Amino acid sequence: MPPTPPVAGSPVFDGTRAWALHPQVSLRPESFGALAYHFGTRRLSFLKSRTLLVVVESLADQPSGYEACRAAGVAPTELDAYTRALAALAESGMIYQRFAS
Amino acid sequence: MTLVTGGPAEAEALPTLAAEPVGRRGAPAGRLVERFERGLEAPICLTWELTYACNLACVHCLSSSGRRDPRELSTDECKALIDEFERMQIFYVNIGGGEPTVRSDFWELVEYATEHHVGVKFSTNGSRITTAVAERLASSEYVDVQISLDGATSAINDAVRGKGSFDTAVTAMGRLADAGFKVSVVVTRHNVGQLDRFEELADRHGAQLRLTRLRPSGRGAAVWDELHPTAEQQRVLYDWLVVHGERVLTGDSFFHLAGYGESLPGLNLCGAGRVVCLVDPVGDVYACPFAIHDEFLAGNVRGTGGFTDVWRRSDLFTDLRRPQSAGACGSCGHYDACRGGCMAAKFFTGLPLDGPDPECVLGHGEEALTHRGGSEAPRPSPDHSLRPRHRSGPEGRGDPGDPGDSRPGAGGRVGPVAVALLPRRPDRACDESPLAAPVRGLGHTTPGADAVGRGLH
Q1: Distance of alpha carbon A64 from its chain centroid, rounded?
Q2: Mean pLDDT for chain B?
Q3: Going by C-beta distance under 8 Å and a sequence separation of 6 or more, which residues neighbour residue B60?
Q4: Hey, are the CB atoms on A28 and B91 less than 8 Å from each other?
Q5: Which member of B4, B163, B224, B318 lies 3.0 to 4.6 Å from B216 by CB, making a disulfide possible if both were Cys?
Q6: How far is B191 from chain A (nearest CA, A)?
Q7: Which of B365, B42, B86 is nearest to B228 (CA)?
Q8: How far apart are CA B251 and CA A46, in angstroms?
Q9: What's the pTM?
Q10: Cβ separation of B35 and A32 shorter than 8 Å?
Q11: Which residue among B3, B117, B180 places its CB closest to the CB of A85?
């Protein structure tokens, strides 16, 4: 099957909502952070910090995106950068908004 | 800082990084690239040539394919290798050859790979894409196919790939409409004027166009002088890619053109042994698909530590991950853009590895080629080309051809190859038709230590 084109537009990443890694995405830790590959869209992304890897891996267990950042040790001054990173991952379908349980 | 970079990493070779913005604190845009140059835990992209057997004899074949190698990895060895890829989290492999579909266990291996979280993208000349195969591909979620085509017309294509190969490819393309596929073109002096036509052809079949660079590797070494795009054509190609680049895949092939100005989509670095490598049909691991030569042989997957050990610890790859000298290019203001170009292109044209690419856009390569002196360019090795005695008629190798025919490969290198159908499996590399009976469970001569660790040392 051809890769599914990414969803048009830019889904807003709301850090107060609950998120999770897409089930078709595989993460491979690397010294610079990690590679994320989406088997459905064939897209590859580079996570450029190990902390971001921890954040992304823990999204499913945290009540919100911001909580995942805080739990992973993201400093308040870094939160903007991490929010942008998560927004980029949301936009490419690597993470998706889930309904908090 | 920017924490995520990605792209339409339809990363048949490498994902795009071109859009990587400069960090807010002025961090250089190339920082991640520098990390890549030091190597990764596993390749981003791995090419796996499953067999050297091929029913065609393309004049520019990177792997000098034709005859099956009797030491080819067995089905079980291939599966063990896939297990290793899964453990290393190599997300997908680019399978080629030879013509990979001639292996009787091809589909078994494809299925095994996708079941083990290793996606498959394979290249084919289309000769075995039956309607049934096309239907199967349409329902395979993790298998992508690309059809090789080197001319938008049969005259230009067949001069390189052999008589009838254009029709074969187009027939396959028609069958693959529901599956979705790529059309993969090696850009040459003779087809560079057909870029728009290639795109139309791909569009008409609902396919995506992929363009790659002609390398002087394998049999390509013999035809590179007459087939590689001229300096003027390089500029045309670059301008075309700047306009169409987002819609066309290039496998990061043309990073040597970055010296013209704007970077093309892609990582724009030589990934050999750092983020890419090649596993050949007998399990030899080379730095990249364009470098099948003893100089770039890092080891063999049949060695004690398997592929993982070759990737992580081989002398050759360790060497390639050290900072490379810009050499003669050090004083050039464009070095940061093109990084000196393609290692394999330099090697097989007899140029020093720390100098300009033979197709350097500033003309330094041409100049270097002129001043090579008497030193011979290294000969590609090994050569699996079909032997001339198995060729029949006027297309056979060695036939002088029509001297007035200036088409690429004219002069007898091109043409469909007549091959004998042997009832038994061969004991040696042979000219048996790769389309003939399956060859399985061949004796495996383990290359052992002598094939491991040979490299630049």
Answers
A1: 12
A2: 81
A3: B150, B160, B186, B188, B214, B215, B218, B219, B220, B223, B224, B227
A4: yes
A5: B224
A6: 26
A7: B365
A8: 17
A9: 0.83
A10: yes
A11: B3
